Amino acid sequence: MNKIEAKNVDVYYGAKQALFDINMDIEANKVTALIGPSGCGKSTFLRCLNRMNDVIDICKVSGVVKINDYDINQKDTDVVRLREKVGMIFQKPNPFPKTIYENISYGPEIHGIAQSKSEMDNIVEESLRKAALWEEVKDRIHEPGTGLSGGQQQRLCIARTISIKPEVILMDEPCSALDPIATAQIEELIDELRKEHTIIIVTHSMSQAARVSQNTGFFHLGKLIEVGSTDKIFKNPTQQQTQDYITGRFG
Amino acid sequence: MNKEERLIKRYKAEKRFRFYGKAAIFMALLFLVVFLTKIFSTGYTAFQKTWLVIPVNYNADLLYLDPDKKPTTEDINDADFYEFGIETFITLDPDASEDQIMELKKMFAFTFERELKYYLLDNPDSFGKTVDVKLTASDDLDQVFKGNYPRDIPENRRRASDYQLKIFDKLNEDGRVISEFNASFFTNADSREAELAGIASSFMGSLFSILVCLSIAFPVALLAAVYLEEFAPKNRFTDFIEVNINNLAAVPSIVFGLLGLGVLLAVFGLPRSTPLVGGITLSLMTLPTIIIAARASLKAVPPSIREAALAMGASRMQTTMHHTVPLALPGTLSGTIIGLAQALGETAPLILIGMVAFVNTIPGTPMDPAASLPVQIYIWAESAERGFVEKVSACIMVLLFFLIFMNLGAQLIRHKFEKKWN
Ligand SMILES: Nc1ncnc2c1ncn2[C@@H]1O[C@H](COP(=O)(O)OP(=O)(O)O)[C@@H](O)[C@H]1O
Ligand SMILES: [Mg+2]
User: Fold this and answer.
1) Do B88 and B56 contact (CB within 8 A), yes or no?
2) How is domain A2-246 classified at the architecture level of CATH?
């Protein structure tokens, strides 16, 4: 079953069109990688899926984006409820300048998920465990999250996101600021998270896309050139442009 | 010109430039040192006060009280301490003529009646006995004792007469002239008599004005800044507002005084000369300073923090209240303190709304008439009496103390609480 269906999505930044008629289906509980040269609109598309483009004044989105068969681009869509279901991890780790505990308890708190302190403690521990961070920070969860290393900060952001159990997690180049070891840890984590979440990851590293994803979409100049199983895209693409990009002839 | 010469010339130019820079800094420091030295050397004596300790006979007859009965508080309050005081002063020179008695009286501050009465109220056992009582010396003798008045000029150009000086010197020889910390400078309101004048009224006036100013300017400015920075669409209209806030910051303060006079007093009929009106007027002045500081601090909060909160499903309001504003608060607070320090030193608008009136009571609320510290400086600087000269400097010292204190506080907040973003 398709978790997300995008139909005829156009995005404009002011007069400049950034996405052209995107149609894409995303399967549940799989990792979908979005690849393509920089500036081709991967992030823009990702942000269409949790309406983060709303924040940018000049950005206008049209078309239909259905999540669980519900069109999120309607006027009366509650973006708070939407973002509770669709979490996001950013390129640069952005923990709140608060303690590790507070970073994770924030989401459950504003959505009223935990009824008691002990329940909150459980959520914090569980989220940190799922983000493979618990063992490293369990003795200092009341220290600032900003004091962690880059890789730990990114896992903290992942723990923060999964604390409210989103169905979908969007990741925008989550490893681009990290060293290879931290990157490997996150990739391992992504594979684990796939069991409970649908994951869409933007990456500029084709090897990463090949390692972590089951499906891949290739973007170029604001258009979705080709989408299919990662295997097929990397081994046997139908489009010449995809072939050229995969083999490193441009991008 | 060959290469070598050009090089030498360039070095020389650089050397000259460095010298000019150092000279400029030296000049600035020199002015500061001269200014502070002048203020301190004239002002420090104001913190000392001269007292004359004289024997007082709390004789029942002199006070027209019943000698056989211990006087009640009421009896003492009703007694005439003026005549009693005169009788007491005569004991300093039993042969004094009528004129000389008047001169004796003028050696003391006019509060001698009160001081004599309070001594008896506080020490009821002194009734019927002769005791030493400490009385405030007159301004003239205070200045003589502090060495501010030359004694060797002709008598007719002197405020203290030869006769007074003779009595004074005799008292001094007997160790009956003492100089103590001038607490009344801090506890008294303004007075026409320099030896009694204090800054309590103007201090409270300034305090109330600043509090009124803070309680209006801070919330309004914070709301305005948050709205402009976090919620308002970026369009021509908000650009226009932004330009005008900057313009507002450049408006001379006296214009705000006129506004206070024309609107707050004339239209709304708020009470004249009060810290309430002063504070509102100052808040108009402080508003743009705080808005600009708050906006700069809000701008400095990285967008990634807002994105993080929004992506967690926080509403815009929650994002602002839970994350952006708390992170911008230290910068806003330090800007606020700087703005308040400016307001504290402001004189012109307060003069226009009448806070320049002579106030000899200490205001208990912002609705009572009051002066303010800078206006007090202005009022005293206008006075002819020598006794006020040291008061002016002392008042400047107090004002400077608070200004430096506030600026240090602002610095501290900035360094200690402001988050560094990498
Ligand atoms: N906030 C913005 N304002 C204006 N143009 C933008 C903005 N964000 C992205 N764009 C433009 O949209 C296009 C797609 O950008 P983006 O989605 O960030 O690409 P990618 O993530 O694939 O590198 C680019 O041409 C970029 O210049
Ligand atoms: Mg991008």
Assistant:
1) yes
2) 3-Layer(aba) Sandwich (3.40)
